[in-house]
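User: Continuing from earlier, I have the next pair ready.

Assistant: Great, send them over.

User: Here they are, in order.

Assistant: Folding the first of the pair now:
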Amino acid sequence: MQLNLQTVLSREMNLNRTVIVTSKQGDINGDGTKDNVFLTANKTPDSPFWRNITLVIQNGRTNQYEQVQMKNNAGYNPTLFLGDFTGNKGEGILVVIDTGGSGGSIYAYVFSYLNGRLLTIFNSDTFNETFKYDVNYENQYKVKLNSYYLKERYILDLTYKDKEYLSEIYNEEGVLKAPIEGWVNPLSGLYPVDYNRDGIYELEAYQRIAGRYNADSLGYVQTVLKWNGQAFVPDRQNVAIFGRGI
């Protein structure tokens, strides 16, 4: 199967550098026949970094290949997941690629056949542009996080932090010594979860909340996205914080 796939790739990509990184089988177009799904890429010598990551689908009925280019097609640990995200009887394709950045962000895409066409129904760039936040430290050991897209506010309690951390930021009365702004990182995790146990997967998105610097993690924004027939929309959003020893 690998030899057949590589014959449809361009000559430039066949210089012993393009390989099948991962593959799965599933009925992608809903015709009742299993299709072959691949991620191909160029391996960087002496590095786990992959370039030119490409989604390739081999139609199980016709044996024809379809290549799908992704805007962000380079990174680490590219993975595939097949599952029904839309309820259209065909399996969708979730592609996740680690960026390797300090914030642990990912590139993520979901593809699905709708009305006979393979469409991109989720991409991490659009998600990051849509979900915007403000993170501000407040007096009395609190952080205020505003989620603008959903028009919700969350208050994080910092009293679980050690005394040294808090004393650098607050005086003895719990008043800020100076204004501090944090931020919410881009998408760092996207997980398919069938919450309703109906065979249709929702998407659970994770974004890490950073305080004074990126390694100063305050928790995660968790957004559950559900297909509404036209797009993935937020079903609910929560903020998870870290605990401390009792």
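And the other member of the pair:
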Amino acid sequence: MIEYRIEADTAGMRLDKHLRKRLPNVPVSHLFKMIRTKKVRVNGKRAQPEQLLSEGDVLTIRGDEQQLVGAERPKVDPPPPPVDPSRLVILREDDWLMAVDKPSGMAVHTGSGITGGTLVDYVRAWLGPKAVRNDFAASPAHRLDRETSGVILVAKRRPAMVHFTEVFTHGLSRKRYLTLVKGKMPRDSGVIDLPLAEHQQTAESKARRGVNMQAAVTRWKVVKQSGEAALLSCAIETGRTHQIRRHLAAIGHPVAGDKKYGDFAFNRDVRARWGLKRLFLHAERIEFPHPEGGAKVAVEAPLAAELRDVLKRAALVP
């Protein structure tokens, strides 16, 4: 029999996910059978696969300990690509989180077509042995597009990730972006309240229930305006994929340098005249309650030098 107490850094994890990490050599089907046949108990009571573990819970697993933790070793994941952690720009760090200034062109996670080091690789290289804590590996708490630069939060402990999941799910954070867009804005500020199609909806889902439209709200304010472009400050009330880029394109003011939703002739022009070689979208500031105690924290990332140079050439320096 195996029996142990759940520690703080494991709190908030689903039981079935915790068991897969704790007993990696046991087939998942067998783990669920053990739960179903009451061989896994939490505080002496019958457990459920989806229940969330709390600090201090006593987990009991009935069975031969040597067979459960021994057996054939699992496959080893390939090592991450070599990266230079000194390249990472840390805006804030404590025992719970990191705030990183992500450069444009760096993907947050691995995925199809992603080569080279990701933000995850750099963060874990920076933390070294401290990157993994009680089976939780430090991970980004939200997303930024690959070509978007700026501040992104990383959870260093599982309770921090649980906290940030609640924060971003319930809109308890405030994010501000700077972006350069095509054209003259009709007024000094405005709100784009326009539902967006779910970005990764499957073909099967579309066939069954049609395109799933999701509520999306973006607030914008002119920081500096010229006759042919505007520097905007944008705040998002929802976190849809490519939200700012899709919303601004929808009202006829696409983001400069946007290869997916942008105006290609405008992009060629600003590249030739102002030297813009990337997407002009920067996550400038984020406010959020801290995982320990809930005190309000604000972190800012300065505009990259290459974008400041573009603003100088465009006569749009605020």
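Worth noting for the second one:
The chain has two domains: 2-70, 85-314. Residues 85-314 form a domain with the Pseudouridine synthase fold (CATH 3.30.2350.10).
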